[in-house]
């Protein structure tokens, strides 16, 4: 009897443990689902197949696959895979899994999705290729080596720094916009050249570094119009952050030469240039020693994480950033592959069938709802359309669980690369995984930025731009804008989707910025444009309003009138803020705008009055200890500062003197210090 009780207890504990482990990896339900079937692909890895009926309010009829797992589990790996490490061959995801298992005998694939969007030679500006290869659009890292840096401005598809999803060397996921800075220095004569990218398309007016990682099987990867240097190193090199290697110029090939560089071996690379950049390479002579350095950064400010990324894959549209849905635009009905992680750090690989083959497909509103239902903290779209693919382990074989759209739903498309989840030998523990939950924003009619957290809570998806926080303002800075008049396009998205209180476009007809443009900006005035999004719709042509903003070095206000737009109706969900544009000259790198407040008003009189009053208040001379902006320092400011550090959102001016005790922190010690200061006065 005693033995039976012990056995029963063990059985109960075992069941409880299994249930707890299963519950920890259960995929959340989505709104209106009619079917939700889950299967454990591997301990700690769950695949959910979810359907919604045509009557579902937002989704309509959908077929969605979700694979969820947590890299805290020390036998799981997430790897980027290229078929034969080649830039000339495409492969199906199923074939990639087979090749992955063959080339990684210590690992076994569990699930895989298609990788990022890819480009071909015809998508380069001003050239014709003599051979064909494909190049991933974004920053791709395989086993710690950079296979491709991101698309560069000289390529026709450039639309700002592309997004990528990476896994660090201690298995922490990170979403960002990684950048690569590469310099070639002639040790012999001290001359330098800036290299624009790694294994990119051979664009005009650019210098590209070609390595054996993707180009070792390609003989004719450049153009007859190119000027090329073949470098050789004493040992193999590793294209990664911190690379610092020196090689020798073994050969030079000019446009008039009949020969081109042959196949690149593991100790070689080729620098190729066309157009205006040729003269930079002509500084180097045969026999010279050339030093190559690589530094990785991130336009989202996560430099240290991206410098340690060991596996990454690129994507396109961000749908959640820092816990905030973005509501970006997408073709309705589009089949998509999505990748993201939730607030607990659980990663989700997602596919949504579309175009009537398996489901209704995506739209901006559907992805906003999916982000909310799955609790995604950071998420973006990989390549979609006919490329959308998910394959999962099914006993001793593999099964396609997504529905292809090519050939009327019967053919699986070949793709450039794949992102593969696998299990293998026990590895190091996951590093520190910090989630900074955004603060709660309560009032959508007067949006301010009293701390850096509010930038994270409201601003996302920058394009040719960087969003930061400075002096109580949202600072928007143009970063690597297209250097062609009228084509520079720095913008960010301002999302109201995380604000519980809704603002109706039927009530609020006007939008006002209170802003400041520093005198260091390149032009005395710029255009500024707002694309207005209501009812979870994405950015649409014809749904924007414009105004002129001025460089004065002090706070100004500008009022926009979106009430003239046909779709300015219902709940306001987002704005795309194209903060600077010029038709007559390019935007310069570093041009910026400080935005203190974005206000909604019912009438133009109200909008102008609120804007003028706040701008005047901000332009008052700064009085030490004046927190509420009335030009005095007294106990009212002590109360205002206390409310501020306590988390209340008050309509007061934020100056540099908030840190009263100058310890670089803002807390109740500053309140006490301010109380003593005004008491002594």
Keywords:
681 residues, alpha+beta, Jelly Rolls, 4 domains, 8-stranded antiparallel sheet, 8-stranded mixed sheet, 10 helices, 39 strands, globular, disordered N terminus
Structure description:
The protein is α+β, with helices and mostly antiparallel strands. It has four domains: 2-56 and 66-77 and 316-423, no CATH class; 117-298, no CATH class; 446-616, Sandwich (Jelly Rolls), CATH 2.60.120; 635-680, no CATH class. Strands 1-2-3-24-23-25-21-22 form an eight-stranded antiparallel beta sheet. It has an eight-stranded mixed beta sheet with strand order 13-12-19-17-16-18-15-14. The longest helix is centred in the first third of the chain and has 23 residues, at 2-24.
What's the layout of helices and strands?
Elements: H1 2-24, E1 35-42, E2 45-52, E3 62-69, E4 76-82, H2 93-103, E5 108-114, E6 118-119, E7 135-136, E8 140-142, E9 145-148, E10 163-168, E11 173-176, E12 178-186, E13 192-195, E14 197-198, E15 207-211, H3 212-215, E16 227-232, E17 244-253, E18 268-273, H4 278-281, E19 289-298, H5 303-306, E20 309-315, E21 318-321, E22 324-325, E23 336-342, E24 347-352, H6 364-374, E25 376-381, E26 390-394, E27 397-400, E28 417-423, E29 446-448, H7 452-458, E30 459-463, E31 465-470, E32 473-478, E33 491-495, E34 510-516, E35 525-534, E36 544-550, E37 555-560, E38 572-581, E39 592-601, H8 604-618, H9 635-645, H10 668-680
Parallel strand pairs: 14-15
Antiparallel strand pairs: 1-2, 2-3, 3-24, 4-28, 5-26, 5-28, 6-7, 8-9, 10-11, 10-20, 12-13, 12-19, 15-18, 16-17, 16-18, 17-19, 21-22, 21-25, 23-24, 23-25, 26-27, 29-39, 30-33, 31-32, 32-39, 33-38, 34-37, 34-39, 35-36, 35-38
Helix pairs in contact: 9-10
